[in-house]
Write a structure and sequence with these properties.
Elements lengths: L3 E3 L14 H25 L2 H26 L15 H29 L6 H22 L7 H30 L3 H29 L9 H9 L4 E13 L2 E10 L3 H4 L1 H15 L7 E8 H5 L9
Parallel strand pairs: 3-4
Antiparallel strand pairs: 1-4, 2-3
Helix pairs in contact: 1-2, 1-4, 2-3, 2-5, 2-6, 3-5, 3-6, 4-5, 5-6
Length: 313
């Protein structure tokens, strides 16, 4: 028995990306409205906080547009040329959004520090109005995206962008109130730095998570040493090597391995039973359920003739 391949109990449903295009389209329309309103406000008031929040909103809007395109491509079926279809495009989209956010955050930080030393005069009343408009619109977008935020990397990135933009709008409002009540003009620069502080850590976190997928690291929460120990505990299993696990896209972890069994397993029928056991093991025993697994069941003599490069852990 050369190999076993498992798609799990419901092949059509495991790791399915879901159709979130309508949700993303509504959120994109709301966010673009924020961009136009805040861009006008930033031009009118000269506020760094509002300008930074506008840039943040523009990044969010572009990210949502990318997410919408990615969400459409993710639904295209697999083919002989693209065996996973466009499932991984959600990871590329999230990485692109993170890169854009990092650029916006760096600009806001540099300009914020400069304005701490040379604070311009900012009209608090107009700043407050545009801050409230941005916050209300962002809350509407959050309500639209909330139910789908855990669906995949794509939706998570979109939701976090809008959530952080809402916090940025809140920072604009606080800055406007402080300027209006105390005349402390540096509050605008401080609010801009606050928004940058929201953006940069999230961008790095998203970049790290998407990079793990692109580098094909072991899925978060799966201990391959524990997987190996559990498989070796099965009757007639003598060795497990060439064990790999990675993530294609959200909800789609995969695992492959060579499983060495006793020679007689291929004559007494045990090989088929072992294959069923190992597939069931990785699908149900570990915190990360892997329904898409491929195992090569082989004898020790076959294993000895394999190149050493195939026998790494």
């Amino acid at each position: 028995m050369g190999a076993g391949h498992s798609h799990g109990p419901a092949p059509g449903d495991v790791g399915h990306p879901g159709d979130h295009r309508r949700t993303l389209a509504i959120a994109f329309a709301i966010t673009m409205a924020i961009v136009f309103a805040q861009a006008f406000g930033a031009w009118l008031t000269g506020s760094l906080a509002l300008l930074t929040d506008t840039a943040h909103a523009l990044t969010d809007a572009s990210g949502l547009l990318v997410a919408l395109v990615a969400g459409t491509l993710m639904l295209r079926p697999a083919s002989s040329r693209r065996t996973w279809g466009f499932r991984r495009i959600e990871v590329l989209a999230a990485l692109g959004q993170a890169t854009l956010l990092l650029g916006v955050g760096a600009y806001a930080a540099i300009e914020g520090v400069r304005r701490l030393f040379e604070p311009p005069e900012v009209p608090a009343g107009e700043l407050l109005i545009f801050g409230v408009v941005g916050l209300v619109a962002n809350l509407a977008a959050i309500a639209v995206l909330a139910s789908s935020r855990s669906a995949n990397f794509n939706m998570r990135a979109a939701f976090l962008e809008v959530l952080n933009d809402a916090l940025g709008s809140l920072g604009v409002i606080v800055a406007a109130i402080v300027i209006a009540t105390t005349g402390f003009e540096r509050a605008d620069a401080i609010a801009g730095l606050f928004i940058a502080a929201l953006i940069v850590p999230r961008a790095f976190r998203l970049m790290r998570e998407t990079s793990r997928v692109l580098m094909e690291f072991t899925p978060e929460g799966l201990d391959l040493d524990e997987v190996r120990r559990h498989l070796l505990a099965l009757d007639h299993v003598r060795d497990v090597h060439d064990l790999h696990a990675s993530t294609v896209a959200t909800g789609l972890p995969i695992l492959t391995a060579h499983v060495v069994v006793d020679d007689e397993c291929f004559t007494d029928g045990h090989a088929a039973e072992i294959l069923a056991h190992v597939k069931d093991c990785v699908a149900s025993h570990f915190p990360v359920a892997i329904h898409h697994s491929t195992f090569q069941i082989e004898t020790e003599s076959v294993s000895r003739h394999e190149p050493d490069s195939l026998k790494h852990d």
